[in-house]
Amino acid sequence: MSTSLDFDIAEPLTSTGRPLTNATITVRVIKSFPYRNVKNLIFQNYDLRAKSPQDLLKDCLQRINSEGAFRPFRNVPYDSLKIYTHAHGSKTVNLVINFDHDEDWLLGMNDAEKKLYQYDIENETELSLFKWDDYVKFKTNPQEKW
User: One short Pfam family name for this protein (predicted)?
Assistant: First the structure.
């Protein structure tokens, strides 16, 4: 009798299966917290060793301003990035943003020397892009509207 597994124990996780210089990350662009207006940007072959949070913000803004699907998202002055979830990690119950880990998952927008991988960002990490003042206001009163 043969026992066969439907997975390979020796196979690495997707978060460690690609080098940091060739990662795929998802950025959740949040236009409105109460109305849950969120659209994803996918960055493939992204170099987490060379890019800083400022570089990622610049790359996001460039795509938002050039891709037609993001036209409704152009009127928000985005200024903050925060990790939403790590690959293979538990997800938050909030569908818009992760309220936990403000002290360690918020990316420093003023430190140009610190690179993305130094924030423990790996392949398949999801991040949120948003306006800080909107986040603080929503966090104090997280009422969702329809």
Answer: DUF2340
Q: Distance between CA atoms of 57 and 110, rounded to whole angstroms?
A: 12
Question: What span, in angstroms and rounded, lies between the C-alpha atoms of 131 and 64?
Answer: 14
Residue 4 clears pLDDT 60, i.e. is over it: no
Q: Could you give phi then psi for residue 112, rounded to 5 degrees?
A: -70, -15
Q: Does the domain made of 20-140 have the CATH classification 3.10.20.90?
A: yes
Q: Within its chain, how far is the Cα of 84 from the centroid?
A: 6
Q: How far is 73 from 9, CA to CA, in rounded Å?
A: 43
Q: Structural domain boundaries of the chain?
A: 20-140
Helix (H, G, I), strand (E, B) or coil at 88: coil
Query: How many Cα atoms within 13 Å fall on the side-chain side of residue 143?
Result: 2
Phi, psi (5° rounding) for residue 145? -115, 160
The band of 8, judged by pLDDT with boundaries at 50, 70 and 90, is very low
Phi then psi dihedrals of residue 80, to 5 deg: -140, 145
pLDDT of residue 96: 81
| CA 132 to the chain's CA centroid | 15
β-strands 126-130, 23-32 pairing:
parallel
